[in-house]
Automatic annotation (TrEMBL):
Protein name per its UniProtKB record: TetR family transcriptional regulator
Ranges annotated as DNA-binding: 30-49
Top-level taxonomy: Bacteria, Bacillati, Actinomycetota, Actinomycetes, Kitasatosporales
Source taxon at top rank: Bacteria
GO molecular function terms attached to this record: DNA binding
PANTHER family attached to this UniProt entry: HTH-TYPE TRANSCRIPTIONAL REPRESSOR SCO4008, TRANSCRIPTIONAL REPRESSOR
UniProt xrefs under PROSITE patterns: HTH_TETR_2
A biological-process GO annotation: regulation of DNA-templated transcription
Limits of the HTH tetR-type domain: 7-67
The organism of origin for this protein: Streptomyces antibioticus
Gene3D superfamilies, alphabetized: Tetracycline Repressor, domain 2 (1.10.357.10)
């Protein structure tokens, strides 16, 4: 007799949803195709997540939580942080495709609480590093964070018109060097 394992089915559904949404976005994703990928009945999508929209949000929140845990900020070494973000993005291209769809399809929605909280914590960490003198105070911490995140992810959404300008092997060092130059405080008397 088969045993029911709702946690396993939920996890299978989340994994299938990541693949489906990364390929098609929420608008193009189909519940029947998603359920087939997960090896479950389409009705379970609605049972677990109140439909495709709820599942899309659940996948986003899971990615956000995993990223915060897997790539913690080190505000005293933002260049290394950017490099680790780049490494994670390169290791999980499907996640980056999902996030591209998310930003296109959810641009007008409020930022999910987990993301807002994480950003606030990162800004506070950068402000503390600015107080310690390890990060420049020339720009507000929020601007610095936005620039670090943009630089860390710049190669994930490039097109071939710029993709050929820097080799794959050089991309990480281009990012870390740029972030280091951006955040390093000026030496006294150098301004």
């Amino acid at each position: 007799m088969a045993t029911r394992d709702p946690d396993r089915k939920r996890q299978q559904l989340m994994e299938a949803a990541l693949a489906e949404f990364a390929e098609y976005g929420v608008a193009g994703a189909r519940v029947d195709r998603l359920a087939k990928r997960a090896g479950i009945s389409p009705g379970l999508v609605y049972s677990f997540f109140a439909g495709k929209e709820g599942l899309f949000e659940a996948v986003y929140e899971a990615i956000a939580e995993q990223t915060v845990d897997a790539v913690p900020i080190d505000a005293d070494d933002l260049a290394d942080y950017a490099g680790r973000l780049y490494d994670a993005a390169a290791q999980y291209p499907q996640v980056m495709r999902f996030l591209a769809w998310y930003s296109l399809e959810r641009a007008e929605r409020p930022v999910p609480a987990i993301v807002a909280r994480s950003m606030d914590e990162k800004i506070a960490a950068i402000e503390a590093a600015q107080q310690r003198g390890t990060v420049t105070s020339d720009k507000p911490a929020g601007e610095i964070l936005a620039l670090v995140l943009a630089l860390a992810n710049m190669w994930q959404h490039h097109t071939e018109d710029v993709g050929h300008l820097v080799t794959d092997a050089q991309r990480r060092s281009v990012i870390t060097d740029a972030v280091r130059r951006l955040v390093t405080p000026d030496e006294p008397g150098s301004g």
